[in-house]
């Protein structure tokens, strides 16, 4: 199992520690200098170049020195004779920051141009090229593969974030749905042809010979590490286009699922818009009605109609021994009086009537048992008619009664709704787990006749067995 090596604890400390903005600006000064092949800078050089990387505030010498000391303590900057430069750890931290910011600013996409570029570089590598050209073409191929992987991942993640957004309105989703469906349709229009072309090109190439020529053309020092990375990249390329099943097939699944999920969200939002009102709108309308009432009696009448809180009906109820209570005692200090739940609904006290007559359910139980036995016998007969001794075509099943035919069609429908395995076989079972069907596509057409009509459809190969 491949695992990532442990990341140094202080690698990105400069982005979260106090004065992180200044530390980041200083790191960018060194990074830009490295791009210009300037490996060391003095403190004065850093001070002068801060403004060129977007730092607008005035920095004192003490503040700058404190930042340089902090970066040096974290192992990102090395110092010698009042000159500073990025360490290897510092170069990694700077590149990691650039990549993170680039990812935040980049939108995911599924680009057919990337697939065409991958196919083009593979065609180039099949030609007789110099070692230097092999190296450059191989690097371009790996870059295009990284773009495909990253674009697909970000596209799917952004789509899922959009689908989880509870604040999106119908107009937004209508626009997104129209754009996304068109975009996905164009992407998968010739996806089968593109992936077949890439697969054939990959299978024609010898990766060992290719990497040896690229190594010679690259002139790298750490050849073992470099070759190992190239082999991993080639293995990833084969996983995308050659392995069974290839990962590129997931793009079609992503496209189909994206369309289905968008339509489901659209249905949910449309259903919410169809509702004539909601609680907030009801209370606003009620407030307007209260504002238009002219007298207090009208307001009370409206209140009673809206909330059903009429005047109390239990004021006539009294304690069993009222003489024990003083007439001057406040009502909140007196013991409660039991009130029947029937009083509010009917205006009357609860009345206990005569005990109801016990119903004889023996006949009902007997009828239900006989009906269950009949249905079980019919089910057993239907399964015995459908069960096969092996794989057969649907057209060979004849003289089926309508109920048995209906159960067969239900099983076929369940299988067609499942995903095929690596051999193209689709499997499904009944809800009780009793029967299982294995279905494969077949050429030809089948016509089946029952007492209620004739049905025509593809002549599938099926194998129905009892579990």
Structural commentary:
The protein has helices at residues 20-35, 43-49, 61-73, 88-105, 112-125, 131-164, 170-188, 191-204, 207-218, 223-241, 249-274, 279-292, 296-307, 342-346, 362-386, 402-416, and strands spanning 41-42, 77-80, 83-86, 392-393, 426-429, 435-440, 445-450, 453-458, 461-466. With 467 residues, it is of the alpha+beta class. The protein has 3 domains: 13-105, Orthogonal Bundle (Arc Repressor Mutant, subunit A); 112-272, no CATH class; 381-466, no CATH class. The strands form 3 sheets. The protein has a 4-stranded antiparallel sheet with strand order 4-9-6-5, with helices on one face. A 3-stranded antiparallel sheet has the order 1-3-2. The relative contact order is 0.05. The mean pLDDT is 77.
The low-pLDDT segments are none
How are the strands ordered across the major sheet? 4-9-6-5
Shape: flat
- The total of beta strands comes to 9
- Percent range for β-strand residues: 5-15%
Number of domains as seen in the coordinates? 3
Strand/helix succession: HEHHEEHHHHHHHHHHHHEHEEEEE
The average pLDDT score comes to 77
The helix tally amounts to: 16
Q: Tell me the helix content.
A: 55-70%
Structural class: alpha+beta
């Amino acid at each position: 199992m491949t695992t990532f090596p442990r990341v140094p604890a202080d690698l990105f400390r400069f982005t979260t520690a106090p004065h992180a903005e200044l530390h980041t600006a200083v790191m960018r000064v060194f990074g830009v200098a490295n791009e210009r092949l300037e490996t060391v800078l003095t403190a004065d050089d850093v001070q002068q170049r801060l403004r060129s990387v977007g730092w607008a505030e005035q920095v004192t010498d003490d503040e700058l020195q404190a930042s340089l000391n902090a970066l040096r303590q974290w192992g990102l900057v090395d110092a010698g004779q009042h000159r500073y430069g990025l360490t290897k750890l510092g170069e990694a931290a700077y590149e990691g920051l650039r990549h993170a910011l680039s990812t935040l600013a980049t939108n995911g996409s599924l680009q057919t141009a990337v697939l065409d570029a991958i196919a083009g570089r593979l065609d180039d590598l099949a030609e007789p090229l110099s070692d230097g050209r092999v190296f450059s073409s191989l690097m371009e191929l790996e870059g295009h593969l990284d773009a495909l992987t990253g674009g697909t991942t970000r596209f799917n993640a952004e789509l899922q974030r959009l689908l989880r957004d509870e604040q999106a309105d119908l107009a937004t989703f209508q626009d997104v749905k129209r754009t996304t469906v068109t975009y996905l349709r164009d992407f998968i229009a010739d996806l089968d042809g593109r992936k077949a072309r890439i697969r054939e090109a990959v299978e024609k190439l010898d990766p060992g010979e290719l990497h040896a020529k690229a190594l010679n053309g690259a002139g790298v020092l750490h050849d073992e590490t470099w070759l190992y990375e190239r082999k991993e990249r080639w293995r990833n390329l084969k996983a995308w286009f050659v392995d069974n099943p290839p990962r590129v097939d997931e793009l079609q699944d992503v496209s189909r699922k994206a369309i289905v999920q968008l339509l489901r969200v659209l249905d949910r939002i449309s259903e919410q818009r169809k509702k004539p009102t909601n609680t907030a709108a009801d209370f606003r309308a009620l407030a307007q009605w209260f504002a238009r009432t002219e007298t207090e009696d009208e307001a009370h009448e409206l209140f009673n109609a809206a909330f059903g809180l009429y005047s109390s009906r239990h004021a006539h109820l009294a304690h069993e021994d009222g003489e024990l209570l003083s007439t001057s005692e406040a009502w909140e200090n007196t013991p409660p009086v039991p009130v029947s739940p029937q009083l509010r609904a009917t205006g009357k006290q609860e009345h206990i009537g005569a005990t109801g007559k016990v119903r004889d359910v023996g006949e009902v139980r007997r009828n239900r048992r006989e009906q269950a036995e009949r249905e079980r016998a019919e089910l057993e007969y239907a399964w015995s008619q459908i069960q096969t001794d092996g794989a057969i075509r649907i057209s060979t099943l004849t003289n089926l009664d309508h109920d048995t035919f209906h159960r067969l069609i239900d099983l076929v429908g369940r299988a067609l709704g499942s995903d095929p395995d690596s051999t193209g076989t689709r499997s499904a079972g009944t809800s009780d787990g009793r029967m299982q069907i294995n279905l494969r596509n077949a050429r030809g057409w089948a016509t089946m006749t029952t007492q209620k009509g004739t049905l025509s459809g593809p002549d599938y190969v099926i194998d129905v067995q009892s579990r």
